[in-house]
TrEMBL record:
<dbReference type="GO" id="GO:0046983">
    <property type="term" value="F:protein dimerization activity"/>
</dbReference>
<dbReference type="Pfam" id="PF05699">
    <property type="entry name" value="Dimer_Tnp_hAT"/>
</dbReference>
<feature type="domain" description="HAT C-terminal dimerisation">
    <location>
        <begin position="112"/>
        <end position="190"/>
    </location>
</feature>
<dbReference type="InterPro" id="IPR012337">
    <property type="entry name" value="RNaseH-like_sf"/>
</dbReference>
<protein>
    <recommendedName>
        <fullName>HAT C-terminal dimerisation domain-containing protein</fullName>
    </recommendedName>
</protein>
<dbReference type="InterPro" id="IPR008906">
    <property type="entry name" value="HATC_C_dom"/>
</dbReference>
């Protein structure tokens, strides 16, 4: 590789290094790299632990949204006298259960460890095709991957979607309902995501 020692090339290198630092400070980005079997070998031990912790947090949040994903922890409330259970009480019970049982079960930790031992995938393969193939082997991680890989880790995707609004919401479509606009944007964003 040719080395360029000029102000512009040095500025570009510095900008790339700052961007890399910014990206690796983003938990969602670390998680996306962790779940991408093509490039997760680039993560060091510390970043791997941080990504695993973020994955555990995501699992906990998904459970709060949809308890069917996994059986929830039960908490004994023998010493708590409360006639009505409000949102705060539910949050406190969940936090107590997580503290007492740990955020990740030994079975889930074994799945994570097994996943990291999986051979590296070819970088030319589509990540969604890889996860479709791994769905039966890692069903819970498949659900996590669908959520984690759908999050835009950079602003480019978001900016691209905002730019596409001018084609969708124009003078002829100025009375479109917000729900229809949202549905069209979801279809368009999945189309753009599938193309890349």
């Amino acid at each position: 590789m040719t080395s360029y020692d000029s102000f512009i090339s040095n500025s570009i290198v510095e900008a790339i290094q700052r961007r890399e630092t910014t990206l690796f400070n983003c938990d969602s980005f670390k998680l996306a790299i962790f779940l991408d079997g093509r490039v997760n070998v680039l993560l060091d031990e510390n970043t791997l632990r941080e990504a695993e912790n973020h994955l555990i947090l995501l699992s906990s949040e998904l459970h709060n949204i949809d308890p069917v994903i996994r059986e929830g922890p039960t908490v004994s409330t023998n010493n708590i006298e409360c006639n009505e259970v409000d949102d705060l009480e539910l949050e406190l019970r969940t936090a107590a259960a997580e503290r007492s049982s740990g955020l990740v079960s030994s079975q889930d930790q074994a799945v994570l460890d097994n996943f990291m031992q999986f051979p590296r995938e070819d970088k030319s393969k589509n990540i969604m095709d890889i996860w479709t193939r791994l769905k039966k082997m890692y069903p819970l991680m498949y659900e996590w991957a669908l959520v984690a890989l759908a999050l835009p880790t950079t602003q480019v995707t978001v900016e691209r979607l905002f730019s596409s609004l001018k084609f969708i919401l124009n003078d002829q479509r100025n009375r479109m309902s917000p729900s229809l606009l949202e549905d069209i944007m979801v279809v368009r964003s999945n189309y753009l995501f599938d193309k890349s």
